[in-house]
Fold:
Amino acid sequence: MSAALLTTVHHVHGARIYDTPDRYYAVAIAVAGLALQTALLAVARGGHPRWATLGRRGFAAVSVLFFVVLFGVVEGGSTHVVAPLLAGRYGGAEPFDAFFEVTGMLQVVPAAVVAVLAGRWLRRART
Structure:
C-alpha cells in the first residue's frame, strides 16, 4: 500500500508541475496492482488449500511485479537513482524539482520491503 501511495504522490506531482498528464497512467497501474492484490488476498484467505496456495503465490507475484520491479527497480532505481548518477545530473529535459526527485528515489525503499515480505510470505506458505 505504501508503494502505491508513494508512486501516486510522485506521479501526480510530476504530472502537475511538468504538465505531463501521461504520468497519471502510473496511478492507474498502481490502482490496478492494488485491486489484483486485494482479489488474490481474498482467494488466499479462502477455505480451499489449493486455491489458498494459488492466491498466495499470485499475491506475491503481483506484489513483486508491480511494486518491486515496475515501480521500485525501473521507476525508482533506474530513472531516479542510476540514470542521474550516470548522467552526472538530475532533470534532463525537465527543470529540477527536489520533491519530485526525492519521491522518485524513495520508491526503492518500499520496493525493498515488499520484496523481503513477499519472500518471507512465500517461504512460510511452503511450511
